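Final report, Chapter 2: Outcomes

The project's central promise was a pipeline that accepts a single protein chain and returns its three-dimensional structure in a standardized token representation, suitable for archiving and comparison. That pipeline is now operational. To close this chapter, we reproduce one record exactly as it appears in the project archive, with the input sequence first and the structure output second.
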Amino acid sequence: MASEFKKKMFWRAVVAEFFAMSLFIFISIGAALGFQFPVSENKTTTPVQDNVKVSLAFGISIATMAQSVGHISGAHLNPAVTLGLLLSCQISILRAVMYIIAQCLGAVVATAILSGITSSLPGNSLGLNQLAEGINSGQGLGIEIIATLQLVLCVLATTDRRRTDVSGSAPLAIGLSVALGHLLAIDYTGCGINPARSFGSAVVTGKFGQHWIFWVGPLLGGASAALIYDFILAPRSSDVTDRMKVWTSGQVEEYDLDADDSRVEMKPK
């Protein structure tokens, strides 16, 4: 772990996760809050949130950020994705911990900025995830598990280096998976599927009543996706020793960033 900790590339990746997460949260939650602003003083109807708009905002913003920083950090932008890749032995424990911290900090910063921009909204929830009326904790947990499982499964499948049949855009596929999760879960839980995204809203609003669901559900979904993909759908041949080496020292990357230059530049190893 010490060798990875000393690499400039490692810290660039952590900063990339923080920066991209901040942009993702600002854009996506900002789009979700936008429908609440009155368009006229004489409005006679209550605004209704456009679930398709919000779903596309989350999906397209993830795809954009994945295209922008994917070559630097892998663009996890989600602790559930990071956990899935950790269990799949694609990143080290140190990288996973630092990524999750960066993701949570990025979410808090972006939500705090949105709080100032949308301060005139009455009852502003800042995208706080909550169970819909009639949905209990178990049902909400199930929705979060399934919605996150399909996302992490998509991430693992589209980024699998063993595949030679992926001809489309991986960032776009992952973005569509995020949008799909929102189309499913918004009406039930507000759609967490990303503990860091839920954490930012909970911290800024100070409301943690149902917050555990939006950590436990996505993390269980991400872990399940990794186990299903690696041991059932597309088993890996690596043994325990190889897996432990990745967890402690990190995986040897196919590409590396130029550590002696401030430019972001891909160099084959």
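Archive annotation: The longest strand covers residues 255-257.
This record, like all others produced under the grant, will remain available to the consortium after the project formally closes.
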